[in-house]
Design goal:
The chain has 165 residues and is α+β, with helices and mostly antiparallel strands. It has six helices and five strands; from the N terminus they run E-E-H-E-E-E-H-H-H-H-H. The N and C termini lie far apart (62 Å). Bound molecules: FE2/S2 (inorganic) cluster (FES) (2 copies). This is Ferredoxin.
Length: 165
């Protein structure tokens, strides 16, 4: 005999748009975003809170989407890297700085790192190197290491210089 799982209705705002979804208690936010809502920048990596590639903003704080159950996001505000870029001049400056200073970052880590860096700059417009390293320490990156990300965030910070074209 097969048992059907109970579905829960959840409403939240995703990248500025209202969402209403049915979720079961076992689905992660990462799965919901990438597999069902087609947001490819919320990547699946370790699936256990080790790598950071699934990082999204939940109610203004960066979280690992693989560690958040979809059922928990009722009435919340969720933003992915894509959503942060819309009409956000500071975020666009950060994106340009990543393009200029973090050239070897592959597409696996980039969206999650942008979310974490954006959250940091929201709290500390001119962070120190140590604060930047702490903010991105939850991202394990095989290709690039943290140095170029630190340079990019410094360039995008208040007082930093970043090319505009
Ligand atoms: S997939 Fe979420 S932290 Fe690795
Ligand atoms: S930039 Fe490629 S694994 Fe991190």
């Amino acid at each position: 005999m097969t048992q059907s799982r109970k579905l829960l209705k959840r409403k939240f705002t995703l990248n500025g748009q209202p969402q209403e979804v049915d979720v079961d208690g076992h689905e992660t936010l990462q799965h919901l975003l990438q597999e069902r809502l087609q947001l490819s920048e919320c990547r699946r990596g370790c699936d256990r809170g080790d790598c950071g590639v699934c990082t999204v903003m939940l109610d203004g704080q960066p979280v690992y989407a693989c560690l958040v159950m979809a059922a928990e996001v009722d009435q919340s505000i969720v933003e992915t890297a894509q959503g942060l870029s819309a009409a956000n001049a500071k975020y666009q400056r950060l994106q340009r700085a990543f393009q200029e200073h973090a050239l070897t970052l592959c597409h696996l880590c980039r969206p999650g790192l942008l979310v974490s860096a954006s959250a940091l700059l929201g709290e500390r417009p001119a962070p120190s190197q140590e604060q930047i390293r702490a903010a991105i320490s939850g991202h394990l990156c095989r290709c690039s290491g943290p140095d170029q990300v630190v340079r990019a965030v410094l360039a995008a910070a208040d007082g930093g210089k970043v090319e505009t074209s």
